Amino acid sequence: MQSFGKIYFIGAGPGDPSLLTVKAANVLRKADVVITDRLVSEEILTEYVNSSAEIIPVGKQGASQVSASQKEINDLLVEYANQYEIIVRLKGGDVSLFSNILDELETLSQAGISYEIIPGITAVSGAAAYTGIPLTARGFATGVRILTYYQNTAIADELWKELAKFNDTLVFYMSGKSLRKVVSKLLTAGADGEIPFVVVEQATTPNQYIHQYTLQDFFFKNDEPEFMSPSLVIIGRVTSLYQQFAWLPQGERIEYFTNLEELNRTIEINNGYQTYSNVSRA
Asked: Does residue 46 fall inside a structural domain?
């Protein structure tokens, strides 16, 4: 009977390495292999992963030729589960929120490979805490809607009308490039143009940077050609509290997370797969 190792899906948190959970850190110290996304602090890889572990970067980055396909990642999980006892699939934020964990879980289930899911602090909870924005502040919002919007995202007109009432705080993941369309959709659906919102770049890192707008002035004030990745959009009355309760100073608008194009220059090719070679090993 085939004997497999175990896959641990771990949420690395939104950026600040000290937000890694104790359980996640304990598993990383025992891992034989770590298959990691791009949006993971390098400090986590250098401080918490044992020196003998193999680190495989499989991050995705828009317009990058070195991004790993989902099939390649699925194949890696099965291959390493055939060779090692403890394999970590490390993802930014929390593994269950806007990640491709479903594809990977289906692959492991079909192959009969055991797994465990270890949650991480989400990007939205990290961004809310590090901007001082209480997402469900009494009198400002009754709940939170967590969404994403691409050019081909299907959101019905009736749902836009409901969202435009702003009874809830709206949080948009991975929507920086389509933000003009989001704002336009909300205004067309009847949203009050005075509704404020923020765009949080690289939340919880030293380079966290906040852009502030209202729906109606966004098209006039937005002079940024592109928001830095990762960016989170928080729209709603609660964002008016940002200036009052912000505690983290604005960071520099420079990359905190490793750029895949730069990372590719320091990657060794090992048995046809990419092995992280610029992590310092004590």
From this structure: yes
